[in-house]
Amino acid sequence: MAKIIGGVTTSHIPAIANAMANGLEETPYWKPFFDGYPPVRDWLNEQKPDVIILFYNDHGLEFFIDKKPTFAMGVADEYYNSDEGWGIPTIPPVTGESELSWHIANSLVEDGFDMTICQEMKVDHGLTVPLNLMWPGHNYGHVKVIPVCINCEQHPMPQPKRTLALGQAIGRAVESFEDDLKVVVFGTGGMSHQLDGERAGFINRAFDIECLDKLVSDPESLTQYSNYDLVELGGAQAVELNMLIAMRGALLGEVTELHRNYHAPISNTGSGLMLLENK
């Protein structure tokens, strides 16, 4: 049977890709951020997962404001990236896992989630940056990826209680898949951050640390927040916490925290890296 062996939270801001492309990892600004990643890379290389289920939000490459699904997922054999206007180099194609993807899609619909199911899907920096962080130099070709996209840009957006439930439903679907696969779930996005308006540059470190703690020990408590609460406590873009919450939902039981690195600000964003082992 397929088994989710762990989960990872990570930032996906496009400035990270530019820093890697320009060899800036050891510069004073970037070093505290990149220094957090070797333990997670080592664990992934040791565990050798077959599949990554990756929660992210699309920033206008595949879905724009005229068509914005609440939840979307890919079921393709391959996913392509393209120029988003950030100056990030386009990465090689990402390999999909269509059999498990279709199994999850069918299971989610049976569970009451009206997914937008994509047989073709361009993937943006929300997905490509985490892959390059974990396998630098585009060395992710050995692992298959299932993209799951959550709307964090345009209201109405799903609430934390719904994204946790989505993660739990995906966790159940994976565990019911008959093939022997090792799966790791990524929850990607910034923690507290506001990129525009009167509070531009706002970061709430205390709230970010509290959320990381609760992701480990009490994820249900995060469902007390509405998206408006997240905006008030963490800034307009803090709704990206929903991807981290969905990741934790997919880890159905207790978890062990193996590694954590919190750093802020990085590109005006609170960045929380965490590695959780699924018990």
UniProtKB/TrEMBL annotation:
<dbReference type="Pfam" id="PF02900">
    <property type="entry name" value="LigB"/>
</dbReference>
<dbReference type="InterPro" id="IPR004183">
    <property type="entry name" value="Xdiol_dOase_suB"/>
</dbReference>
<keyword id="KW-0223">Dioxygenase</keyword>
<protein>
    <submittedName>
        <fullName>Protocatechuate 4,5-dioxygenase beta subunit</fullName>
    </submittedName>
</protein>
<dbReference type="GO" id="GO:0008198">
    <property type="term" value="F:ferrous iron binding"/>
</dbReference>
<keyword id="KW-0560">Oxidoreductase</keyword>
<dbReference type="GO" id="GO:0016702">
    <property type="term" value="F:oxidoreductase activity, acting on single donors with incorporation of molecular oxygen, incorporation of two atoms of oxygen"/>
</dbReference>
<feature type="domain" description="Extradiol ring-cleavage dioxygenase class III enzyme subunit B">
    <location>
        <begin position="8"/>
        <end position="269"/>
    </location>
</feature>
